[in-house]
Input
Amino acid sequence: MNENPRSFAPVSTAAPGPRHLLWLVLPMIVLIAAVLWLLQVDPLRGFSNGAPPVENLAVERTVLDEGGLRLQLRAGGSEPMTIAQVQVDAAYWQFRQEPSGPISRGETAWMAIPFPWVLGEAHKVTFVTNTGATFDHEIPVAVPTPKVSGSGLVSQAILGAFVGILPVAIGLLCYPALRGAGRNTMAFLLAMTVGLLAFLLVDTIIEALDFASQSAAVFQGSVMVVLIAAVSFLALVAIGRRRGSPTGLALATYIAIGIGLHNFGEGLAIGAAFAAGAAGLGTFLVLGFTLHNITEGIGIAVPILNIRPKVVHFLGLALLAGGPAVFGIWLGSLAVAPHWTAIALAIGAGAIAQVIVEVTALVARGHEGRGDYTQILNPAAYGGIVAGLALMYATAMLVKI
Amino acid sequence: MGANMLRWAQAALSRRSLLLGGGAATIGATTICSSKTVAQEGHGNHVIAAEAQSAAAAPTHQSAHGAMITVGTVDNERNGFDPTRLLTDWHTGTLTDLPDGRKLRTFEITAEDKEIEIAPGVMFPAWTYNGRVPGPALRATEGERLRIVFRNYGSHPHSMHFHGIHSARMDGVPGAGVIAPGDEFVYEFDAKPFGCHLYHCHSLPLARHLHKGMYGLFVIDPDPERHPDHVNVAKSRLYGSPENAEWQEIAMIMNAFDTNFDGENEFYACNTIAHCYAKEPIRIEKGRPVRIYLVNVTEFDPINSFHLHGNFFDYFDQGTTLTPTLRMVDLIMQCQAQRGILEFTYRNHEAGHYMFHAHQSEFTELGWMGMFDVVETLS
Output
C-alpha cells in the first residue's frame, strides 16, 4: 500500500521544458472567453434589482492649513463614485476635487475645501455622492497640520529621543550591574526579556489592527496585518538563522531591530495623533513613557552579558532601537494614510515575534546546553516572564489616561 | 514605547482642556487663526472665500454667502421643471358652467415615479404629482365646484388629501381616495374656505410619501362679492383681476430631502432645489407689492421658518382672513403643513439684493436660502 506520500510516482519523469509553459495559453483563453461572454451577453442582469450601487469611501489624510481643509479620499464602491456636494458642519461648501470626475474603485482624490476652521474645535465633513449617500469624517480637534520646518523637526526629534532613545540608553546602562549574573539570574533576565517582548507583541498587533480598521476596505486591513506580520517574522527568522540561531551581539541586534521597528510604527501613530490634533503633552507624561520604555533597554542588554561589547556597540544598539521613533514621529506628523501605519506596525510585530522565538531558544539552550523546551518553565524563567509582563503593564499604568 | 502613548494622544483628541495646555502642535496655529477671525467679521469677505471666488468671477450676489454654497448647477431641463418658473406657475384647470349657474373647475393630476436632481449632481428617487416637486400649484376661487381627476401611474398606492372643507369620502385617506397603481379617482368638493392651503398624499407610511415629494399648493382666492367689508383686499387676491395684476405673487414651498434615508434631511430648499434662488435671484420690481403663498412641508423637522432681510411684512396665517393675523414682522414660524400669506413692498428701498431664508441656520446652510433682486420699476 502506498500510504506514504513519498512513495507516489512523480507526475512526469520528463524534464519540464519551455514547451510545457505553452499550455498556460489554454487557461488564459478560457478566462478571456468567460470575461468576454459576461460583458457581451450580460447573463447576470437578472441580479440588477434597481438598487443603487454599493458605495464606500475612506478618508486617508486630513490636512488643515491657511487655505482650509484638504482631504484625501479613497473610493471603494462597486462602481466609480461621484462626489456631488460637500458639507462641513452641516453646511454646504464649495470644494475643488483633484483629479476631478468620478473616483474609480481603489483610486484616490484630493478634496480642497476653503473652510475657515476654528482652532481647537471639532468639525465634521460630510461627502454627499450623486446617489444621495453620505460619508462622514470627523476632525476631533482642528489644529494646523505640522509642516516640515526646522524648529518643528527639532522639537519632534526631542520628543522621539525622550520616549525612544533615552529609555533604551538608560536600560543599557544597567549592563555593568547585571554583568555578574549567575545562571539562574541570567535565565530570569532572559525570560523577563521574553515577557516584555510578549507585552509589546500583543500591544503592537492590537494597534496595527486598530489602524487597519481605519484604512480603506480595498486593503482588507486585518488580513493585511496578519499576513505582513507573518512574512516579516519568517523573513527575519530566515535571515537570522543563516549561521545558526543568533546569540550574543547578534541576538541583541535583532532585539534592537525588533524594538526599533515597533517604535517606528509607534512613532508614526503618535505623529499622526499630533497631526490630528493631540497636543499639550505634559512633562510628567513624557517621563512616564521614558520609565515605561527603560525595560526595553534592559532586554537588549541581557544577551550580551557574557561577552565584552565595545562602547560603540551600545551606542549602535540604542540608536537602532530608539532612533526609529524619531523618524516615525517625523513621518507620522505629515498625516500619512492609516494603512501605512498598520503596515509598519505589522512589520514590527513580526520582528518582535522573531526575537521572542530566538530569546526563548536561548533560554532553553541554557539548560544542559541543548534546546530542551520542556525544561523552559523552571521557577526562574517563569518568574522572569511574569516579571517582564508585570513591569510593562505596571509602568503602562503611569501613562494610561 | 508602548501603544499607551498613542492612546493617551487619542484620548486627548476629544479633550479640549488638554489641548489648551499648549504644546508643540499648537505652534504656528495662533497666527493662522487670528487672521481667520478677522476675516469672519465681515460676512461674505472670508479671505479664502474671496480666493475661491476670484477665479470663477462669481456674480456679486454670491459673495453674500462666500464659499458656503453647493457647487454646480442643476439640469432643469432633465428635471422637467425650473424653480424660477415654479414661482408663478399657477394651475387653474379648466372652467365650465354647471346647470345651477355655478362654475365647475376641473384639474387633472397624475402620480408618477421620477428621479429628480434636487441639488447639483445629487439625484433623488422622487414620487411626484405631474412629474414635478412640488406638485402643481392649484388655484381656484371661493364657491366654485372643484373636480380633481387623479390617476396613479406610480409604483405605490397614492392619494390627494386636500386641506379644505369636504366630505369624509373625499378625504384622500386609506379607504376614501387612496388608489392602487393604475387606478383613477375623482375628488369633488366645493372650494372653501378661501385661503392658502395645500394638498398632499395621505398613503401610509405618511412620512415616506410626503418626503418623497407628494405635496403642492392649493390656493382658494376670496370671492369679492362675499366680502363687502374688504372688497378691495379680496379683489387684489383674486387671480386674474386687474387689482391682482398689480401684485407680484410668488408660490413657495419649503421642503427638504433625506437622501440617505436616515431620518434626517441632507438638503433643505424653497421649491426643491437647494440654493436655487441664491444662484438665480428672484427679480422683484420695487414699485409693485409682493405677496408670497408660503407652505411648509419639511419632513423630520417639526418647524421651518421664513426670515426676510431689510424689510418687514404682514402675515395672514393660513390665508383665511383678509386682515393680517400678524403685522410688521420679519420672521414667521410654520409647523409641518402650516402655511400662510406674506405681503410686503420694497417701494421705499434702494435697489439691490435682499436675502431671505429659514432662520434655523442649519436649514439655511444646507440649502434653504435665496435672494430677491430688487430692481427699479420700468414704466
Q: What stands out?
A: The first strand of chain B starts at residue 90 and ends at 91. Residues 76-375 of chain B form a domain with the Immunoglobulin-like fold (CATH 2.60.40.420). Chain B touches chain A through 62 residues (CB under 8 Å).
